[in-house]
Amino acid sequence: MARNAIYSLVTLFLLLSIFIYFGSQDDKTIDDQGLSALVERVPESENGFQYIAFTQDEDYETFSSSCEKEKLQRHLDEEHWPVKWDDDLLLKSNVQPSRQFIENLWDDQWVKDLLKRQKKTIDLAITASHAKHFDLNLDYSSLIINIDYMELIDIGKLLVLKSMQHARDNETAEAIAESNAAIKFGQLMKTEASHSLISFMVGERIQQTALSWQAKLFQELEIPRHTYQSALNILDELSNNADHHYSQIAAGEYLYSENLILNVHKDTLMERWRIFFAPEEDEFNDSTVISNSFGREDLPLIENTVNFLFATFPNFYYHRNTEISAYAKYLFSVKELALNGCQNISDTNTSPPSPEYTLADLITPNAIGLANRSRDTGAFNTYQLRHCLNRLQIEANKMILAANHARVNHSGKAKSLEDVKKHLGEIEAIDPFSGEALKLSKDGSEIYSVGKTGHASEEDEGALFNADCHYEEACYNKPRFSLYHPPWFGNAD
Q1: pTM to 2 decimals?
Q2: Is-contact 179 160, C-beta < 8 A?
Q3: What is the DSSP string of 87-131?
Q4: Which tens digit of pLDDT belongs to each residue from 375-410?
């Protein structure tokens, strides 16, 4: 009886071992879809990061406190520019703001002190903006952890702030030059796209702030001819490189994911168990086993069981080479989508729900790999929309610049789209959502895009473009841009 029981247990053990062995078989090779070869390595002589690398040192801080950072943001927020300066740098509108509001709006001494204190950083950021590429030169596995992207965003804000200060001092050429530097600094960050998506989106965030401010400069100031052409050329250069840098994201994301996946579950069995039972503890103990596994009320029992088995038999539940190849195939499709432009963007949610494990997953080879793979589809769709809106903002700035150049130097408000376009010369302002020219409103005060749907018309209300346009259906379906500053436009006729 006992012998039969032992034979049965041994037989069961052998069958389970054979099942786990064959279920752990992975692809022998990885098909990266050619993405590895697309990563752009940057010679140090062309690397803009070398000029501002010190901003990543642990002891470097752009601001001495969070209050300073918030104060800078208040200076940059769009809500501070609904009214127009007059010659003595106060503000004027239909309802004159109180002096107290003006003082709260712009702290001249604080701005000058901040710009003076950060002169070295600002000057080196301007120098960096003339470089061809930006390469952080970090190991992919630690890229997102080690880089302080907020410092890079703050540097972009400093460039915009300096442009604002020049504008308040009636230094038009300098104000435009600093806004150009901020835009180019954001573009430099976007060349880091061959490393990761986050670098590209940080670059677009910097650009969005700079482009919004620049549009106001075009509306407010009389732009000298040489400055006008320089700003127009920079905007056109951004247009020509927009999709290339975004498509490079696929290469960077692939290498980052490959490195991450290949290094997963390389620890010993005991270490994997310790991480499972006590992920936030330095040492293993019985109380941690209870509180962090089956004691968690927000995690289902099956998911905990799968995760425990994953820690015990990782090669059975996750086939690394297979999943790397599958993710490479998905990223290649992302690259192709980026190069196809901004038409027909999918509506798939970018944040699909976490995989829900079932009893079948307990005996399914690569169960976790298959569950994770279901989350890939659509993960870049909102980023694609944000990228397309950033492209649209660049095209809109061309039109705003041309319209106000015509207003100051020629016949006032444009009567037709052709009146604006002729001041662009050979440069075009193309709606990325249609591949055709941006549209002019009937009263000539705004331009608008056909938006994500591709068929917005004059009758649709839409919404004025803003930093959160990618979240607002009315905005991304018909983004609108004012060509002229409202106080001037009100007196145009």
Answers
A1: 0.81
A2: yes
A3: TTS-EESSSPPPHHHHHHH--HHHHHHHHHHTHHHHHHHHHHTTS
A4: 665 557 678 888 899 999 999 999 999 988 888 776
